[in-house]
Amino acid sequence: MTPAIRIEELTKDYAIGFWRRRPYRALDRLTLEIEPGEVFGFLGPNGAGKTTTLKLLMQLIYPTAGRAEILGRPVGDVGVRRRIGYLPENPSFYDYLTAEELLNYFGELFGMPAPARGTRVSALLDRVGIGGERRLQLRKFSKGMIQRVGIAQALLNDPEVIFLDEPMSGLDPIGRRDVRSLILELRDQGRTIFFSSHILADAEALCRRVAIVAGGRLAAAGRLSDILAFQVHGWELVVANMSAELFARVKGSVRRATEISPGRYTLELSLEQSPDRILSALSAGGATLVSLNPMRETLEDFFMQRVAEVGKGARAPIAEATSAGR
Amino acid sequence: MRAVRTVAINVFRESVRDRVPYNLLLFAVLLISSSYLIGQLTAGQDVKIIKDLGLAATAVFGLFISIFIGIGLVSKEVERRSIYALLSKPVSRSQFIAGKYAGLVLTLAANVAVMAIALYAVLGYMVWSAPPTIRAGWDAPGMDPALLKAVFLIFVELMLVTAIALFFSTFSTPMLSAALTFGFFIVGHFNADLKNFDKVVSSRAAAWLARGAYHVLPDLSAFDVKTEVVHGLPVSAGYLATTTAYGLVYVAGLLLAATVIFSRRDFK
Questions:
Q1: Which of A32, A285, B250, B267 could form a cystine bridge with A325, CB 3.0-4.6 A?
Q2: Hey, what domains does chain A have and what are their CATH numbers?
Q3: Which domain holds residue B50?
Q4: B204-235 b/e with 16+ CB inside 10 Å = b?
């Protein structure tokens, strides 16, 4: 099956400096394949190369080396843009247009006939929660409302592949929930979604596969279920009504102890330590158990570890990164 | 073609909703109207002065509009990042440039038409208010249709100036684009003098440089037939056709160069 997106050894260098121009590598031999119909999370800290990758895929910038295809066509093919949607990071549109006019303008560029365009524009603005404001000029819109308009314009042509650069940026909690449900809705319709984010909870909630980039390099890629160790690696207890004497007694026998508020503590135990013994001791000392939870590795733990490794210069070998990307 | 037309209509809509061209147009119409008062100061020359001032105002304010809007056509899209979403649609960069240019030419056509109507309105009033004996002494009829020849060549010249502004705006800042376009406009009007520069300078290098500039830069004085039409001298259809073709060749070359530069540009 033709991958929805294929990125091979994609590299981007910028020349920096005024007098003595020297190259700065923003993206270093990125290789990835994204299957049709999947929600793919492209993660990384600020300045990791996420937006650079998306701009390369949209041909807003040109690669120094490497190539990329969308739906089996080179990214430079203008025709393929009929089949894709793109939400730029912190989108900005024409201040003098209303939301309705902007979408109509873009709809005309797609060659959508007027009646169908009007219906589509109206339905999309409804879907992203833009009501009567749709007839206001965009200069009067808040950042969150612009983000919603940006999402609407990315879906205007009913695209097969949707690129979203930080789609939750500027949205309030309700907006974030709406966008999450919209992404899942699009996934259920068989769309491919490639979204970049540094908000890991979004990726954990939405993606089957993710890639992590740091310092312009691919730090890891794969299924969430493969890259995260889901087995329990310890226990976390939250305890209330614990006296200072009791805390001093149990402190030495746990991996980590943290005071939350007077008399209330979090205790972390390693997997080898049985919670039963400490629970008995706590109960005998008059403390109350609030919660007991198994500890698993989260995407955040994995992310922090991989980003730190790349940051220390432990660059992922290109061969390893390449095979992980596929 | 559809993409070019759609982008062009959006440029026109932007200029219609922008206050700067309105102010310039209003000022031009006021100046043309006030030429009636200035004309009253000179006995027997009033119609000539109105025509002179009216055509000059059309050329100068048309120049301001083409430079002010032309320099921002591309740079504003890049600065406000609206180009990111636009170029992800089925629009090639050459279509984008062609659409932007066509939109500004449409805007200019509308502005020049309004200024020409204002000029004819003032002249119409002069014809209506002047006795037949005074009218008989005029070099050319008051509402001379030949004025449209001058207006047309002003419009072609503005198309060329707009192409220069668009060309610079594909790779430089708005301020620099404005300065360079204005510089080209000035040099273009004195281009004929560059041909014989070797007779006034001793340096061979300077003479060669001037000769080179003469061949490369457009001769904008060719588009100025104001004196001829004001004095009722003939401007042939052949001259209009060749001068228009001359202007359009430069426009095509500039748009091609702008497209080549813009097509290679990274939007960081």
A1: A32
A2: 5-229+299-325 (3.40.50.300), 234-295 (3.30.70.3100)
A3: 2-263
A4: eeebeebeeebeebbbbebbbbbebbbeeeeb
